[in-house]
Every structure is written in C-alpha cells, then in structure tokens.
Records
---
Amino acid sequence: MQGRVEWTGGNGLLCTNSNEQSLVLDWEDGPSPMQVTLQMIGACSLVDVIVGLKDRQFTKVWVELDSTRAETTPRVFESVKMIYHVEGDVPEKLLERIVAKSHEKYCSVSNMFTEVRMTSSVVVHRD
C-alpha cells in the first residue's frame, strides 16, 4: 500500500493513493486528519458488519461515533464510542457478535488503537 500527502497551501492537504484516488483535507475547516481517522474506524468496522450480515434483509446501515481526545499534545484518542444502526430484519444478537468480531479480529483500523477504550452498542430498526 502506498500513498502521498501533499500540502496544497494554507491548511489544505491532498491525500492520494496508488490508484490516484484522493481525499482533500483542511486541518482547520475540516475534515481534519483526526476527523478522517475517526470516520475510518467506523468505515472499516461498518464494512465488516455489512459483509457479516450476508443474506439478511436490511435496507440501511450506519454507525455513529463519539470520541474523546487527550487535552494535551499529542491529542490522541482516549475513547471511541460507536453505536451501530441497522434497518431491517436482523437478529440483535447476531449484530452484536459481528460487531464484537470486527473489533476483536477483523477491523484493521480499530485494532491499531490498542490503547484506546472502544465501546459499542447496536440498534436494530424493524419495519
């Protein structure tokens, strides 16, 4: 995996991967690198949830994230709370197992943050 991050002037950054796909960041007006990092924890785990639900009937899946950061530099994440929502006919226990496995084993992003207290809960919205 390769990438490049280029300063574009002011507070701007252009992040490009080896496939020439890009993200534009602005560390003052957002999205900042820390905001993107938090969202990528959610994105990585959400992929695990969607794949883990396989043949279940659902129409919408999202995760809400709430984090706390250290008050002093480096302002690392101290905690991340995630609430997973699924609209559809999905057993809550299954969803809980998938989320737990995501953070125990499969989500590469969240597993990089071993010193961060991560918690999660699930909500199934049935028709």
Note: The domain at 33-125 is CATH 3.30.300.20 (GMP Synthetase; Chain A, domain 3).
---
Amino acid sequence: MTTVFFLPGTGASPGFWTPVGERLPGGWTKHYLGWPGLGDEPADPAIGSYDDLIALVEARLDDVKAGEEPVDLVAQSMGGFIAARVALAHPKKVRRLVLAATSGGIDLAPFGVSDWRPDYRKAYPNAQPWITEGRAVPNLPVEKIACPTLLLWADADPISPLAIGRHLETRLPNARLHVFASADHRFAAALADEVTPLIAAHLAEHLGDR
C-alpha cells in the first residue's frame, strides 16, 4: 500500500497539499501535516524548534506505520528540510521523496535567495517567533539520501531560485528535476493539475497495480 505524508512550508497549513492529494489515486493513504504555531496554525507548547517539528513527523510515522512498509514524503519549502532530515535519520522508513522549492538542507548563502522573513511576519503576525529568528538550515549531507527523489522547481522563484534545484540534482544520488514556468514559490499548489501527474508517476514507479 502507498502511504504519503504531505509536509507544508512555513505557511504551515495542512491544506497546502490537498489540491495535489485529492488528484492522486483514491486508494493511497494520505496524511496532511501542519506545523503547530506557524502560519495560522494553533500553537503547541511542545513545539519550539525545527527539531520539534522533526520529532513530530517521526512520531506520526511510528503511529501510522508501526514498522510496516516505508512511506513517501511530499514536501514544500521548509518542509523539504524536515523531509531531508527524516530521510537521513530513518532511511528504512522513507521510500521516496518529492521536494518542491526547498533548501533541502544545503547552505543557501551562494544562491542569492530573497529574505522571506519580513513578508512572512506581515502575513502571519501571530506565528511563533523562533521561525524567523535566524537561519536554521544546516549543511546536511544530502549525498546520503539514497531514495528516489523528484525535485520540483519554478524557474523564477526568488525565495528558492532554480539554481538550488539544479544543485540538489547534482548532489542527490537518485534525483531528477522538473521545472515549471512560474515565479510563485507556492506553485505546487497553484499548478496542481500540472504537478500531480509528475508526483503520481514518481510515487507509482515499481508499484505495479498497487
């Protein structure tokens, strides 16, 4: 059985990925995660860092799968950093990755990224302050992520420039990149009709009729 976990970006809404999830096969099990205290999501006193979000995902994986088949992670932006961390820590629990417009856990300094934090604070004034207090993305050893990975990028996104996607494609040992003509950092939801077939094909490889 195919089980998919959808991870949003700092907007944090479980609904970010529903336009895609609703278009994927009905027989697949889908879990839409949100990030407590970020975006407009209610806060949780137990969540105060990226490590806490990673622990949240790990706990959900354990609850849902209980040691059964690995799951697929479909992640947007900051969620891609969390997905990369989980894939590195638990390679036997993650079967495939889809990373959209993310850092993926690499050093962003060489890529001239736009600072998203001022606009984020205006859009989500009640979001927990830790999310914008500093650059929290370490330089992960992404070369160790062996699972097949689909990279989805917009060609004119100032927050996650296409050069980041191309860089990740060279560093991830089993990755391929697909580029959309867009400047929208949230293109994965906005272009669900175009994005979904690529994700469906990637996650369905080697599944036969499942």
Note: The CA atoms of residues 12 and 35 lie 5 Å apart.
---
Amino acid sequence: MIILKIQKWISTIPAGLIGAAAIVCAIEVAVAARRIEFTHVYTMDWGDTRAALNERTSGASILLLGDSRIKFGIAPRVVAAKTGESTYNAAVCGGQPPACYFALRRALDHGARPRAIVVGMAPHLMMSGVHFNARQWPELLATGELIELAFSTRNATLCADWTMRLAIPSYHRRGEIRDAIVRGFAGRDGDQTRKKQAYRRNWERNLGAQINPADNFSIARAEPREWKAFVKNNWRCNATNQEYLIKLFDLAYDRKIAVYWLLHPAPADLRVRSEAIGMDAEFEKMTRSLLLRYPNVKVIDGLHAYYPDRVFMDPLHLAAPGAVALSADLGEILARDRDRPCSNQRIILPAYHDVQIDRALVEIVEPKPGSGKSAGIEPKIEEFVERTRDESVARTRDDSSSHSTRKTAAHRRDD
C-alpha cells in the first residue's frame, strides 16, 4: 500500500521538473569534480595546505604559520639547512589567527610534534574580520571546524553563506566560474590549469612556500591604493581574531611548543606610514600583552632590519633575495636559541645582507619561454597583489647611495 502511494505521488511530479533537477545535479557534480579549473591560485593554496597538514607535517620539527608574508618570505629548506631540523611552511595567503590555530591543531592531530612554530600576520589582516576570507575557509576547514568558527563569529549571515557553500559547489565557486566565462569570451583564457599545476609543483618542492622572483618594484611607483590596503587608522585586533590568537598560544603552551612571533621586515616608507598613524604602537601593545601572558612566546623583531626596496615584490611581500636572507637569518636564530636559550623575549633580526640563492634549496616561481611544462608560470598571484607588471622589464639594480640615505633618514626618525 505504501509503495503504491509513493508511486502515485511520483507520477504527479512533472517530468520537466525531474529533468531540470537531474540537469542541476549533473552540473553540481561536474563543478565539484573540476576543482582545479574553478579555483583561483590564491584559493587553491588553502585547499592544498589542508591536504599537506594531513600528510606532510607529521615529521616537521619547525612549523611556519601565518599569511602570505610567511608563505612568500620563508623557505623551509633554507631554515632546515641552518637548523638541521625538518621544516614545513603551512602559511596561506591572507591567513588570519583562526587559520593558524586550526592548522596547528590539525597537524598535531595527525601526529606532528613540532618543537617550535613561527607565526606572522600582517596587522591589516588581524584588524579584518573572518569574512575577509569567506571564500577560503571551506577550503581549509573540515565541516566540524567550520561550524566551530561560525559559532565564534556569531554572524548569522556568514553562517548561512558557509552552509550554502558546503551544499552547492556552483555557489561556492561562482566567482571563479564567472571569471572563466569572461576570459573565454575575451579570448584570453590560456592554459590556466597548467599554470595552477605549476604553482602546485612549486609549493611541493618548496615544502609549502612560494618564492617569487625579484621584480622592478619601487616605492616611488607604488600606488596609493596599495598603501591604503596595508596601513589602517585606529587599529584594533578583531575580536574573533584575538580569540583564536589566544587559543593558538594556549594550545602551543599546553603542548610545550616554543612560539616565535615574527614582526616581518617592511619597506622603510611603509613602516614610517604605520608609525605616523599609530598602527605600530597599537600592534606593539598587543604584542607586549602576549609576552607577559606566555613565557614560551618570543618576538623576532624584523621591523628594523632595513631590507632595501629591491628585495620586495610589492609594499608587503619579499621577493627571492629577501626571502632567502630572511630564511637564513631565521634559521640561525632558531638554531642558536635551541642550543643556548635566550633570556630575552625579544630577538632582533640582523640587518639585511645578500645571501646566495641555492637552487637545490629554493625553487623560484618565474616565467620561462617555450612550450614546456613550466611555460606560462606567472611571477606572483595577481588577484592578491592586485596589480600586474610588465615581465619584460629588467630587475632594478641596487642604488647603494639612495639606500644609505634612506637608511640614515630612517635612523633619524627612530631617534
């Protein structure tokens, strides 16, 4: 009787509706299966990091966590060469404290026993809420972790958005689908899949890091909107970010893991702008409160390391020469502090010095001519840096006289 009733009810459903539902399901399955095609490099990074935390961090003695400045700026093999300890870079572009907390927790759950973690996040990301990475969180977090973060935000709209993203692949990837359609109609689609695979190979070979080539970056040519994105008035750490920063340090303290909070080197002009509006002072206040609360936390101060403009790829991120120098100095600090623990909780990063790039330790993302597997690799993530540059322009030479003048001026401002 029940079966007959069900059959009768099904017979009342219009055939067109059944066909439409079947088409929708087929589309959703196809979108879900073509992840690499409908995902930006910037977003794919989060998903690949999630997989690496499950598979590649179990033997890491040093774990690097944070945002793109850590991902682009620290080469794990260089750190490992200095410390003799296995290192993995689990930072993600745009990473915020919840990403660091869940990354460390996931790594520990999968057998990792790091003796130290290096953490670094740009102040403007800590000021922004987790909605800043609404698209990325479902790539990094499992469903249970996403629910945990959603409850922490107490934001019903954000929770509804994440629910839709988990349930409907085309909704989750609508931005990438739209971009693919636009590129197709404009005739500039190119081989996007091969480019993404090239980035993925670079992350694998650099143990999670992405080392970018030196570019023709110049502070004088930096656009105002770039400064506006990184320098914020009335800086305050977002409540959710602060909550997960404390969770991260509590977890590290409970597991007896040393924490090194890296204040990343920045171009002198960016630091001066940050100091002028008081952003550095507020950030420093938060840093001091962490040092007072956690004896296992140390600050590596790189703000006064005076890295020249030529080793940056934009106002925030280091290119290969700066990344190798930072990695080498960081490795020496970690090795020295392991053998002879420093009594001070603040360690000064040495001033910038040129370090020869060892291609056995670092693979640089750079375009290569021809039609081989590496052809078409872009020098950076366009959607994150927010502007393109002419790749044919030669790398800028170091103007030693202007650098020394700028360094002297910065010293005077500090005094």
Note: The longest helix spans residues 320-339.
